[in-house]
Design a protein that fits this description.
The protein is mostly helical and about 170 residues long. Helices cover about 75% and strands about 5% of the residues. It contains 5 helices and 2 strands. A two-stranded antiparallel sheet has the order 1-2. Strand 1 and strand 2 form a beta hairpin.
Length: about 170
């Protein structure tokens, strides 16, 4: 279950960032609206998947394969940072859309506004949303590099376990 949620989240995050890149170049308002709706739905899917993963990990804790306490602590902190940003990023997006006075959509289902319309606050939240996105990308890159380090340097089977299972 952990692997399935992990890889669905990876695919959703890739699609979220691709939708931003595609949407930035669109001039047709109908196409832009379609991409924005897709972006919102994917973002909320990431929020849902991350919530499910956190619940799953709470009920089914994974044994750590790392014996060094410092490396284990770094691993826990980096995972906590990724999980936190995976929760914060879609929530910031939802808050931004709400503050703009627009409706967030989750695969066609309108979602309630989280806050009242406030253009100045919307601009501030949008900046946070963008910066958090870049920070999330940086942490994901570090996460991938750490997985490669485990595989090629430590040869401890961590990456193999996440790709193929035990």
């Amino acid at each position: 279950m952990t692997r399935a949620i992990h890889w669905f989240t990876v695919l959703a995050i890739i699609a979220v960032f691709v939708s931003v890149l595609i949407g930035a170049d669109l001039e047709d308002p109908e196409q832009k609206k379609l991409i924005v709706g897709f972006h919102q739905s994917l973002g909320l899917s990431v929020l849902l998947l991350n919530g499910l993963r956190l619940l799953w990990r709470w009920w089914h804790p994974m044994p750590s394969l790392i014996t060094d306490p410092v490396k284990r602590r770094i691993g826990h902190l980096s995972h906590a940072a990724v999980y936190g940003l995976l929760m914060a990023q879609p929530l910031l997006g939802w808050l931004y859309v709400s503050a703009r006075g627009r409706t967030t959509s989750f695969w066609g289902l309108p979602m309630p506004a989280l806050i009242d319309k406030n253009r100045e606050l919307a601009d501030s939240i949008h900046t946070w949303h963008e910066n958090t996105g870049w920070l999330l990308l940086a942490l994901i890159a570090l996460h991938a590099l750490a997985a490669l380090h485990h595989h090629y340097v430590l040869k401890d089977g961590v990456l193999r376990r996440m790709v193929r299972g035990r």
